[in-house]
Amino acid sequence: MAAQDTSDAHLSEYGYKQEFDRSLKRFASFAIGFSFISITTGIFTTYAFVLNTAGPLGIWTWPIVIVGQLMVALVFGALASRMPLAGYTYQWMSRLANPHIGWLVGWFMFAFLIVDVVAVDYAVASAVAPVLFGYVGTTANTWIVTGAVILVQCLLIMFSTLWSERVNNVAVGTELIGIGGLTILIVVVGAIAGKLDWGHLFSKGAAAGASPYFGIGTLTHVSPWVLAFLLGSFTIVGFEACGNLAEETDEPERVVPRAMWTSVLLSGVLGFLFLIAITAATWDIPALTKSGTPVADIVDHVLGSVVGKVFLVLVFFSIFACGLVIFITASRVAWAMSRDERFPGWKAIRRVSHSYRTPLIATVVVGVVLEIVLASFATRTDVLFKLFSAATLMPAIIYLVTVLLYVVERRKLPAEKGFNLGAWEWPVIIVALVWLVFELSIFRDASFKDPWIYLVVMVGVGLIYFIYMVATKRSLTMPGKALEPEEAVASDPSE
Question: What pTM, to 2 d.p., does this model score?
Fold first, then answer.
């Protein structure tokens, strides 16, 4: 109780009152980051893309991504431990840089979360549901199933944070059992049945004729090897989501940073083992390259339809929970910005339901926006690629801007409360920056035109509202005390 009182006192220093129950403990906070990352979602969504662009050899980009994203998670942890506020990057930018930049980053983050929910829910409707329920996926029925999944998630978030938390906690178990169990069974059963070919781990598959395979590429084209980095880049994002629920977390200064880096590390190790297993089980690379559901096909081929479907149920639930967590994160970002009177419709969106203890209206608004974005993408060709590439591009930009902010303004941070990079600060920063610059360079490829268009459109909408706020003289001053430079001296280990 004393720790909760301390966290509430810190919140009041920033000009806010405690409106949520601090019901999230260590495991629940970790579960949010782990479920947002969801290696099940990422691999089931992007493995077909990797087979088509880089072949099975592309999976070896995964460990590099893990190292880069782990460094980013450590920087985010340092920020979250000092400013454990809902809205995370929006709050950090507003208080460390200025509220104008903070607002733009907050809106950009909201736009990313929206497209990410659609990408994840579209993945479960297109890459898992057809095999699990035995029907042929079409553009029309995939759109309908995705819309239905979004509606169920919306209702769950609206009426119960507790049940949303329970679903998410269970999903961690299904993810661990699903991915861990599948990995072990595929290796054991595949070895006994003679269905494993370890040589496939080094096959270029459909990209065998590409030259150069490992090259950097040109100004508007990247090599197959570089494109394969999207496998890990799309998957290992969202670890910072637990920071967005810091005001609902007990002892967030200590709990949230640990949840961030442990979710990345565990996801990275388990995900890579799973990738090795399914790649060794690719019995017919050309056929799987043409399939829209290669991972589900591999599971079915090695384990049989009955056992395979049991595990696909777990996979379906895990991906559903992933979308649920991202949906929750988007609603909290909209609520946090509305609390500061900086989001369209803020007067209604900032309300917290006294009956359900949830931002009810914020959740409904996010749900409506999700359905609109789904409708704008759903009739396009190659929908899943456009969605997951947009959901990879946007967080990379957010991460880079946030790490740069940390470099420039870290001396203004409040005193360390539970997590500190210490002597590792600069090595962590340098690796994170190098990785993020490289990751963003991938998106110069001409195939990413549509994600850039989505980005420009959403930023344009945000700028229109931003101009409106400025024209109507809306105050952009952050509530609470200003950060004092002398506070940072105590937290800087180099001083």
Answer: 0.86
